[in-house]
Amino acid sequence: MAYLTLDRPKLQANFDHLEGLLGARGIDWGITTKLLCGNKLFLNEVIRLGRLELLDSRISNLRAIKELNPEAQTVYIKPPASALIEELVTWADVSFNTELETIRAISAEAVKQNKTHLIIIMIEMGDLREGVLREDIVAFYEQVFRLPNIRIIGIGTNLNCLNGVMPSEDKLIQLGLYKTIIELKNGVEIQWVSAGTTVTLPLLIAGGLPAAINHFRIGEALFFGQDLVHENTFEAMHDDVLELHAQVIELAEKPTTPSGVLGKNPFGQTAEGDAEGPSTSHRAILDVGYLDISPQYLTPVDPRLEVIGGSSDMLVLNVGDNEAGLEVGSYVTFRLKYMGALHLMNSPYIDKFVLDGSGEKISELPAPQPVGG
Fold first, then answer.
1. 3-state SS assignment for residue 12
2. Which of 27, 40, 166, 354 could cross-link 362 (Cys pair, CB 3.0–4.6 Å)?
3. Is the whole-model pTM more than 0.90?
4. What pLDDT digit, counting tens, does each position of 290-343 carry?
5. Is 275 inside any structural domain?
6. First-to-last C-alpha distance (Å) of the chain
7. What CATH number is attached to the domain comprising 198?
């Protein structure tokens, strides 16, 4: 069976690098865990890093975090659906919000549960996903400040998540100015200007991040070491914290061009032959397919292997003359892109293991420690 691994030492190294990078500038940050799809084995590896502000877009995942560590601060990072308000207040300490009626409902539920719910109000800064329009910000905040059991701890924005609008010094300066206006208008202090994500790290490294931006939300850089601006890996970070391992279930030398009348395959595509290439090559079929991941998100670690395509539950590789020495039963290892890892984490057909640095594969959470002496 194909399986996914999380390398503990490499995750720790990426975390330490981010801690140094952000800590040196006095920036607070939380770890975005939505990639892990609530998998407690992998969530536990994040929790053991020690930074206990964890952000997710599924309440069930926040519940899993609280069950592992009740002391963690859980943050729900999209505007909540009205049907989820009770669960939201139960399992999320903080939530991102853009709708006044939703915040009123959260306030009423927080009163009922005798809790103070913290919120970050998201501002529309040009990417056109979620966010209060800038001309409405002052009036919006004034109404929220009146609500019981609600405390505003931040102003934030999302960039690059829908239309690819990149964070810039100018946009982030504007966001910091909105915070100042709101504070002066209402006689309050707002803790966070939350506008940093993985895509903002190059701006930080280049020295272009405005001083007002004091909170980051990071997932992709932690798990993939990705510089999304320059499309490479950050220096001193690992891009292989997560890897897929799939087993060869057939290996044979076959023609490179299909034969027979060609129609559309299940994906609506019509195959084409390779008139300029060799007439035959070795092909390996692996035990993973579109049910688990789209082949476009997979890169074989061995550059001699090429992904040709796949079907619902099989992946086909061109292995040429098989210089890699593959056999039936061999495992092929793949580097992953973010969306590919997300699909694998959400697939019940893929086993998950932690690599502890000694070669051991861990598949279960550690036994709970006894309380008291």
1. helix
2. 354
3. yes
4. 999 999 999 999 999 999 999 999 999 999 999 999 999 999 999 999 999 999
5. no
6. 43
7. 3.20.20.10
